């Protein structure tokens, strides 16, 4: 697999609306679409180690090692895709000009509509959403300590085992999430598309401003 080849076909999937950090860095010319489609890392995050996916989904493929702290937003990728993990200071140095991550204006408790584009719509277990803690430090990269310990929303298919229900466990082009009701100001949201029949999830990140 030649990941440096601009003719490399698109793979897997990414959010196309609203704008993710991946969309921002594509617009900046730092990454290609196919690289943002491959923000792929272990699916049992925020666990630290590889292993079985938790019950009642332990018949799903076991997770590979989840992303390390500081590389969460890229799904653990440390190549050019590391730029989605950058703080605003790091990105300003990279671009040699002042930079701030664009913010998506949201309201506490609102329903956020998500649209995906898939190029390899894997057998899907579901989607998990995490968000930064109150008082998180935007001058630091996102780590487990910067995130709330529990997801604020999950949308999982319940059919098990996955190999008896593959036709039903479809990746969702459109889905909705109810945002936390108590957040204010700038936060980072991490969205995971969790695959049933591999050890990976695909990671997408959003900078939001709760008004």
UniProtKB/TrEMBL annotation:
This is Lytic polysaccharide monooxygenase. Gene3D superfamilies: chitin-binding protein cbp21. Keywords: Monooxygenase, Oxidoreductase, Signal. It comes from the Bacteria. One of its GO terms (molecular function) is monooxygenase activity. The keyword Signal applies. The keyword Cytoplasm does not apply. Residues 12-208 form the Chitin-binding type-4 domain. InterPro entries: Cellulose/chitin-bd_N, GlcNAc_Chitin_IntDeg, Ig_E-set. It holds the Pfam family LPMO_10.
């Amino acid at each position: 697999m030649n990941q440096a080849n601009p003719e490399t076909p698109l793979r897997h999937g990414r959010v196309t609306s609203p704008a993710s950090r991946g969309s921002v860095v594509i617009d900046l010319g730092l990454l290609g679409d196919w690289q943002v489609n491959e923000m792929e890392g272990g699916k049992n995050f925020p666990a630290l180690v590889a292993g079985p996916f938790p019950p009642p989904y332990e018949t799903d493929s076991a997770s590979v090692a989840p992303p390390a702290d500081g590389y969460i937003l890229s799904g653990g990728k440390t190549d050019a895709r590391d730029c989605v993990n950058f703080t605003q200071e790091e990105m300003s140095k990279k671009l040699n000009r002042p930079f701030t991550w664009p913010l998506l204006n949201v309201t506490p408790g609102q329903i956020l509509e998500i649209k995906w584009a898939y190029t390899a719509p894997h057998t899907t277990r579901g989607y998990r959403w995490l968000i930064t803690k109150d008082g998180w430090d935007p001058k630091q990269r996102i780590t487990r300590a910067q995130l709330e310990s529990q997801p604020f929303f999950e949308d999982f298919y319940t059919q098990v085992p996955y190999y008896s229900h593959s036709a039903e466990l479809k990746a969702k082009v459109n889905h909705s999430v109810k945002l936390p009701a108590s957040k204010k100001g700038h936060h980072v949201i991490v969205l995971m598309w969790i695959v049933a029949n591999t050890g990976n999830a695909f990671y997408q990140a959003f900078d939001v401003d709760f008004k």
